[in-house]
Amino acid sequence: MEKFTSVQDVAxxxxxxxxxQQLKQNPYQHKELGQNKTLGLLxxxxxxxxxxxxxxxxxxxxxNVMVMNLDKEGWALETQEGAIMNGSTVEHIKDAAAVMxxxxxxIGIRSFPRLQNREExxxxxxxxxxxxxxxxxVVSLESATRHPLQSFADLxxxxxxxxxxxxxxxxxxxxxxxxxxxxxxxxSFAEWMGQADVDLVITHPEGYELDDEFTRxxxxxxxxxxxxxxxxxxxxxxxxxxTQYGQVLTDGEGWMMTNEKLRNTNNAKVMHCLPVRRNVELxxxxxxxxxxxxxxxxxxxxxxxxxxxxxxxxxxI
Length: 317
Ligand code: AN0
Ligand code: CP
Fold this sequence. Notes:
About 35% of the residues lie in helices and about 15% in strands. The chain is built from twelve helices and twelve strands. The relative contact order is 0.17. The protein binds N-acetyl-L-norvaline (AN0) and phosphoric acid mono(formamide)ester. The site of N-acetyl-L-norvaline has 6 residues, from α8.
């Protein structure tokens, strides 16, 4: 593995999940691997889980870890090739990334979409430029279109909670939110589930269809009740419209996940990547109840991040 930006960078998904399960059993067994290696984690947006779990993951492998809030603590970055930099940007990404590539052996970067221009966001310009200029392995900590470390932890969580040999029904359901949210988590989840041994159903109100690049293997319906029938896992997530790009089309009344809605599921486990808007996306009763997996999902972020860092250090991904 030279980089980890999507499930497409993984050659052997089943092996990868097994490796994460092993690391979870014994997180310190590769303490020597990262000795004298530096991990740089760069954030252009807020983060709790990704920041903390990836730091622990690096430390478990013996790495030196540096975290930088690039949006607040770095110089304003220019990304346009050939720009005459007489405006507000101070440093070109070519120069900044090249320098950080000298300081770090692996770099993680988080950069959300702006949700203004679909082509611009979906081109993943910043991530691709960063990869080409820093010349060291890059891990996406959530980019404009995907959140692969989250999806890997989600897959580990589903695997742990599925009896051997069973192919679970997994439902990704849109939920209301108060602001426009990226499609990344939903895109990525659908893309990973498409490669896993699960049946995926996606349900959302009209106008919230995701880019079909990510959803090809899924069944898609606007009927939430029908979708939830016999579900083993219900993954709750808001996203803004892809077709009417970045817009919030409805207040989503009736789409919040409640215990009442879980009645016809197979006693489904409920998942969310967090942070969650309680009693908007998901009810308190679910989040505080026995079917919620959200904290274990967040816990699994450490071991999945560690698996990716281990493979990048070993150059085996
Ligand atoms: C972000 C998103 O959905 O992409 C980050 C989630 C990990 N969520 C919010 O901005 C609330
Ligand atoms: N789920 C997740 O990525 O959380 P943070 O945004 O807090 O890192």
